[in-house]
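User: Structure please.
Assistant: Input sequence and predicted structure:
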Amino acid sequence: MSNPVLVRATGETLNPDASGTTVAPISGARMTMDDVIVKTGMLFAILLVGAFVGWSVPSLTFPALLVGLGLSLVNIFKKEVSPALVLAYGAAEGVFLGGISNLYSAAYADTAPNLVSQAVIGTFVAFGTMLFLYKSGIIKVNGKFKKVFMVAMVSYLVIAVASLISSFFGVGSGWGFYGVGGLGLLLCVAGVGLAAFSLVMDFELITQTIAAGAPEKESWRMAFGLMVTLVWLYLELLRLLAILQGRD
């Protein structure tokens, strides 16, 4: 997600990207952690409603994927955050997650009937664990951490795109590189790890944005960022569990 404009609570302007550009002091309510929690809760509730719809009507899975992707790009690049578009993203992603979860559940109904619930529990456990590691200071988001993380993210993205292309040619029985023995398992573990560490980056961004005195409306952007990461983490866990099941 794109960084919001950071302005100190005193009204002093900041230059977050060293470009020489300054911004005008803001007025009105400033963002707090409570704002982020409330907005994230609202977004999660909308996602759950969408997930129920998607689970009940699996045919909506692919259209919801396209809509969710489009809305995510709009929300990322839109300079002024739009609560309506953020909520619309949550609804679309919910329909997609419900549909894809239904498909996984049906495919592994006989061998792994609890596959979806395990992925859901794993997502919440990972969230709680990374929050604890961040708040306790065990994981520190410094310059070195950010550089290593970005290199890992770019590398994983390149591999993921190559895997998607290869899947069209039958590699890994349609899974791409993820279906190629130990390599697929390694890639899935890496995906789960990167998604989990992305939560730490989200926590750091939220902390910095609050400290800088950003307007209350920016809490929607923070909630959106958290939801994007949680959706990614859930999908990675779902795929990892499915591959592990296939190896049994």
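The CA atoms of residues 150 and 156 lie 10 Å apart.
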